[in-house]
């Protein structure tokens, strides 16, 4: 009986540590990693390359993203006691000391694997890979940790997220299998700005709490309506520049597809900007019953409108992005 109780306690503790790493967030870096690998055009169907690919996803997913989420929970403990009391630390399932062990072990594992991969690659590619990982881990820490705590100001937090999730992931994935392709630098830049726009709107969900706690989100500074406008302009410019780059790279059919996607996005944006409560309401089922488990759900009107838009925007952007990455990879094969 005692063994059974002990085993149950160990499993519960393990689950709490895993929850602290927030597995649902790991997939956010996977599209850029996949795109970077595809665009390299140099991954071979060998056991070695498949192993390196798996390590790449582990480093930036469970380890890298998990590290940033664990650090965030540790430094947001007092806020979570009020807003998310069921999280592992405020609920008492993990002590503060255990939380430090959690993100410290994950950090050391990520650094160790990253150093090994960088040395295995060697040369400039190894330097690029190691530099990108180091930048990502540092940003993952100072995003939540004092004294910098970048998340307190949207002018620091949004670029930090854009770099971590959209830029360095593309470069790292490319460097793992080949020299950096010029086109990949372009795709990485587009993903940086797309991530900035999305994180700006994601702050709708905590606008009231941000205002009370002194967090300077864009919504707090200029209001929800103007925040939609700023984010939509950034997103539309991303698609417009993407179309120009596709034309410049010689991918003319892709350029047409991107421009069609831009038009679809604008058609969705107008009613959402006009009335966040009812705009693009035909997508509500997708948020409530379909993609909700992946992108989240919300009772905040503006944030719920953002989620409806995000479903369509992300599908269109990923479709075009993967098509571009595949065409780039074929070009260099």
Automatic annotation (TrEMBL):
Record Pfam families: UbiA
Compartment list: Membrane
Coiled coil residues, start to end: none
InterPro entries per UniProt: Prenyltransferase_related (IPR050475), UbiA_prenyltransferase (IPR000537), UbiA_sf (IPR044878)
Record key words, sorted: Cell membrane, Membrane, Transmembrane, Transmembrane helix
Keyword Cell membrane: yes
A GO CC term assigned to this protein in UniProt: membrane
TM region(s), chain numbering: 20-40, 47-67, 100-119, 126-143, 155-177, 184-202, 222-246, 253-273, 311-330
Domain of life, per lineage: Bacteria
Gene Ontology molecular functions: transferase activity, transferring alkyl or aryl (other than methyl) groups
Membrane topology, record value: Multi-pass membrane protein
UniProt protein name: Bacteriochlorophyll c synthase
Source organism (scientific name): Prosthecochloris aestuarii
């Amino acid at each position: 009986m005692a063994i059974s109780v002990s085993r149950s306690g160990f499993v519960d503790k393990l689950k709490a540590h895993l929850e602290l790493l927030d597995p649902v967030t790991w997939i956010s870096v996977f599209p850029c990693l996949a795109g970077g690998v595809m665009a390299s055009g140099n991954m071979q169907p060998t056991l070695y390359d498949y192993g390196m690919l798996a390590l790449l996803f582990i480093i930036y997913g469970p380890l890298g993203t998990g590290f940033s989420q664990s650090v965030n929970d540790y430094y947001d403990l007092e806020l979570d006691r009020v807003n998310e009391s069921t999280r592992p630390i405020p609920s008492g399932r993990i002590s503060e000391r255990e939380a430090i062990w959690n993100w410290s072990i994950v950090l050391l594992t990520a650094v160790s694997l990253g150093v090994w991969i960088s040395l295995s690659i060697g040369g400039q590619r190894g330097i690029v890979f190691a530099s990108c990982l180091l930048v990502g881990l540092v940003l993952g820490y100072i995003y939540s940790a004092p004294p910098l705590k970048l998340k307190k100001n949207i002018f620091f937090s949004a670029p930090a997220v854009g770099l971590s999730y959209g830029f360095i992931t593309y470069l790292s994935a490319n460097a793992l299998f080949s020299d950096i392709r010029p086109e990949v630098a372009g795709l990485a830049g587009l993903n940086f700005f797309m991530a900035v726009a999305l994180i700006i709107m994601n702050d709708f969900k905590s606008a009231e709490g941000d205002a009370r706690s002194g967090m300077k989100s864009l919504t707090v500074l200029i209001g929800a309506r103007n925040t939609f406008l700023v984010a939509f302009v950034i997103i539309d410019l991303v698609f417009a520049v993407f179309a120009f780059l596709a034309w410049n790279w010689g991918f003319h059919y892709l350029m047409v597809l991107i421009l069609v996607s831009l038009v679809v996005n604008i058609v969705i944006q107008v009613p959402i900007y006009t009335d966040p409560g009812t705009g693009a309401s035909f997508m509500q089922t997708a948020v409530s019953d379909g993609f909700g488990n992946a992108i989240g759900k919300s009772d905040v009107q503006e944030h719920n409108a953002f989620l409806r838009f995000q479903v369509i925007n992300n599908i269109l952007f990923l479709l075009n992005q993967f098509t571009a990455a595949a065409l780039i990879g074929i070009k260099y094969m």
